[in-house]
Amino acid sequence: MLDTSFILTIASKPLNLIEELEGIFGKVELLILEDTIKELKAISMRKSVKKAKQAKLALEFAMKLKIIKYDREGLVDDKILNYAVENNLIVATMDKDLRKRLKAMNLSTITLKENRLLIF
């Protein structure tokens, strides 16, 4: 499962995420919550041209993924955490706080550092 921060980051970087992940894990399916799409749409409407452009690129990428409707109350990060726990998923995020929370729940995370995937 990919969160907003991760999608925004990879949208501006030339790397083939799916090929890299499949090289590590075998066949993968990238998921995104419907709420993450909403966040990207909101960012794409911002006055900051750079952020808006990045969010539009991220949206183009995200719309090709499997979009999950998850009707729970709470913030998007809470929903990602809960959905990942319920379905034993690996979460790709750049958000340090979310990574800590996922680690506390014994879930693996993926992040990027210097254009390399790191798995924890």
Helix and strand topology:
Elements: H1 4-11, H2 17-25, E1 31-33, H3 34-44, H4 49-62, E2 66-68, H5 76-87, E3 91-92, H6 96-104, E4 109-113, E5 116-119
Parallel strand pairs: 1-2, 3-4
Antiparallel strand pairs: 4-5
Structure notes:
This protein is α/β, with parallel strands linked by helices and 120 residues long. The chain has a single domain (4-119), classed as 5'-nuclease (Rossmann fold, 3-Layer(aba) Sandwich). The protein is 52% helix and 14% strand. It contains six helices and five strands, in the order ααβααβαβαββ. The strands form two sheets. Strands 3-4-5 form a three-stranded mixed sheet. Helix 6 (96-104) links the parallel strand 3 and strand 4. The longest helix has 14 residues, at 49-62. The chain starts with a helix and ends with a strand. The mean pLDDT is 88.
